[in-house]
């Protein structure tokens, strides 16, 4: 694992760090983006499609709940 | 890491100017596509009814602050770790403590359950992440089988197994994240880019491929490619440390919790923040977040001892959960979405679920 040592006296290290920052920003600036309206619509649709299967959102019937208080055991 | 060739005549000053103009361009590009707010898209959706989520189990046994917890895939076991150096594996249904390990260090800040359910990983102030196979034999000394896997130069803040028991991903106070082979302890990939402590990481849901998100004290959340080590996207909108990051269940977005008392929601394909969850009355830092199964609810634990439940789409608060007597350090929804576990500095864990229909 390389660690870059930042030293005010080491001009070439500063140059390397600055160049890395520029390369990183070039990469980030170049990615393809979609409109927020499209992204938001897809997030909303995912929520709505899965809502009925979300136990913390809709609750579960008592018989299905694994954490329900244990019923007393009756022999007849 | 090879550095792309320096052009003749480039100086630190000229590169800094280029950095600035690239940053501005990035902002402009993101703004151009910001045609609507998420909550506007959610306007026509019905408002959530009152949520009744009740605490049904209180797990007592840790001698000090509980810092982290993780669910087992079997949806009933969980592992927790504490400031007192102890790691405990619990059966959340029966409250049985199935395994306990005492680490030689205090502040075990990270713990994770292996996908197989047969091992747990943990780490913290010892700067390491170790893996313990869980034995069926209760008398066996777990510490004897401890395998030291990760070695950082500062504390380990987060750890997770990847798709199998064979690899773990760690985040550290040394500013890096790293991917390790469990068997050999070999470093497979390291991730450099944060300029301060990394406090949290989360793996993308398996369908979305080999990426993960990290957040830290440099107020940045970064998305990484696990194979290349490359930082693919970066988000900087929080005003203070990011304590926790978590992917939205579809893998297309993630949420963050910060000391700036807000939680935020970022969409990866729009490449920007799309929601801020905040209230004037919420002034304490948020330390942890997790989504419900459908992604509609965001559970966030705060330093004021409460858990706020946010409506992810509408941006409003749906509910508050009380009960802990100190900071909430971690919240995690169980793998089948039925239950919420919260860990706290009050030395306990609480397991809650939605009241019966």
UniProtKB/TrEMBL annotation, chain A:
Keywords: Cell membrane, Lipoprotein, Membrane, Methylation, Prenylation, Transducer
Membrane protein topology class: Lipid-anchor
Gene Ontology MF term list: G-protein beta-subunit binding
InterPro entries xref list: G-protein_gamma, G-protein_gamma-like_dom, GGL_sf
GO biological process: G protein-coupled receptor signaling pathway
Compartmental location: Cell membrane
Record bears the keyword Disulfide bond: no
SMART domains: G_gamma, GGL
Protein origin, superkingdom: Eukaryota
UniProt KW Transmembrane helix keyword: no
UniProt domain G protein gamma: residue ranges: 11-76
Entry GO CC: heterotrimeric G-protein complex
Family: Belongs to the G protein gamma family.
Subunit record text: G proteins are composed of 3 units; alpha, beta and gamma.
General function of this protein: Guanine nucleotide-binding proteins (G proteins) are involved as a modulator or transducer in various transmembrane signaling systems. The beta and gamma chains are required for the GTPase activity, for replacement of GDP by GTP, and for G protein-effector interaction.
Listed name of the protein: Guanine nucleotide-binding protein subunit gamma
Source species of the chain: Sander lucioperca
Lineage summary: Eukaryota, Metazoa, Chordata, Craniata, Vertebrata
UniProtKB/TrEMBL annotation, chain B:
Ranges for the WD repeats: 59-91, 149-190, 191-234, 235-276, 288-320, 321-351
Protein name listed in UniProt: Guanine nucleotide binding protein (G protein), beta 5b
TM ranges: none
Coiled-coil features, chain-numbered ranges: 12-39
Self-association and partners: May interact with RGS9; this interaction stabilizes both proteins and increases RGS9 GTPase-activating protein (GAP) activity, hence accelerating the deactivation of D(2) dopamine receptor-mediated signaling.
Gene Ontology biological-process entries: signal transduction
Gene3D superfamilies: YVTN repeat-like/Quinoprotein amine dehydrogenase
PROSITE patterns listed in its UniProt record: WD_REPEATS_1 (PS00678), WD_REPEATS_2 (PS50082), WD_REPEATS_REGION (PS50294)
